[in-house]
Amino acid sequence: MIVSSSGLPDGIYVTQAGNPIQLSEDVTLAADQLLTFVPGFPNPNQGEDKIPGIQFLSVYETEPVESALDIYWETSTSGLLSDLNNAILNSNSGGAAFSSFDVGGWNEGLASGANILSGNFTIVDNFGVNIPTGNITSLTMTSVVDNNGADRSSYFTLTNPSAGFFNIQQLQIIMIIFFFSDSSAVRLFTFSFQGVVTNSGVATTTSYVQGPFGPANVQPVITLPASASTIVNTSRITTSTLQTLEGHNGANNNDLKTSDLTAEITAVQDTTK
Question: Which domain holds residue 52?
């Protein structure tokens, strides 16, 4: 038996049981000092801990029990509603999101009838897997509003270039009304959709929202005559055109191309003095 207690050196063990107990070496104990005895191997390995038997720790791998009965159990009611929604979507194979909605190529120079999305999109399930095209019953764009909340549905149309895949075209009216310099509230749009996915005869309707998004700016272009400089020397008797500056913004509408284009004389200096 190995003996341990506060203040005792390691390796003390019982050499003879009885009354009194004889230890492997002399020790000094305080009154009522607590001693702990741990099983150990006999000679010549006295003092080495004995590995506990299986009665101290048991780990078993068992085969699960199969039952023909429906078995139910109670769990906590805590959790996220989003997790519950996801579980419901996955259980009925409804649509969860769009495969993409890339507006990276949309800018103010885009022509009427052009797609504002860089690629077509479809409906995916909660695991990001495309819903089979045959299961997509319909997808409609229910509204488009700008950041002021005004209805801008007439600016865009949802297209269906191939079965189960969609894109959005901008219409002529958007080119007539604004260009990038306008307030962001009128050139950022939120798109709302409603999709119907049918699986095993069960139709599931889901709403989707994308945005706000808007066209990016196209860098304005300002040109000078090839041989000219922004510094002009003249005299009071010169009445001809001294310099011509040409420029335009990035709007695709010619009526808006010169909007917000200004020029000014920054300094006048008398060079005769």
Answer: 1-61
